[in-house]
């Protein structure tokens, strides 16, 4: 057997925030649009998802995860994929101050 003593331990602390999420147990249908959903139906679903996010105790951790991993789909941390994309492109366009 190989020596595994130098391997990192379990990474549970990276995901523990999910257990406290307001969306826990609600299913993905509220947060991820079905193929072809457009217009008012999509806006209504996004707004319903955002209402769940509003009072979520781990909203910041959720959004941070989505931004860090470049999550391409769904509402995470109260932002849609389009809103996150705009946020990231705006952040990329700003000069870094030293």
From TrEMBL:
The Fe-S cluster can be nitrosylated by nitric oxide (NO). Upon Fe-S cluster removal intramolecular disulfide bonds are formed. GO terms for biological process: cell redox homeostasis; negative regulation of DNA-templated transcription. The keyword Flavoprotein does not apply. Pfam families: Whib (PF02467). It comes from the Bacteria. It is found in: Cytoplasm. [4Fe-4S] cluster binds at residues 23, 53, 56, 62. HAMAP family: WhiB (MF_01479). This is Transcriptional regulator WhiB. It comes from Streptomyces lavendulae subsp. lavendulae.
């Amino acid at each position: 057997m190989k020596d595994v003593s130098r391997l990192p331990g379990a990474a549970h602390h990276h995901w523990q925030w999910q257990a406290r999420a307001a969306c826990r147990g609600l299913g993905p249908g509220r947060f991820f649009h079905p193929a072809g959903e457009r217009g008012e139906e999509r806006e209504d679903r996004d707004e319903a998802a955002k209402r769940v996010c509003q009072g979520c105790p781990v909203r910041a951790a959720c959004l941070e995860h989505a931004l860090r991993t470049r999550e391409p789909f769904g509402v995470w941390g109260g932002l849609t994929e389009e809103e996150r994309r705009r946020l990231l492109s705006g952040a990329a366009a700003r000069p870094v101050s030293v």
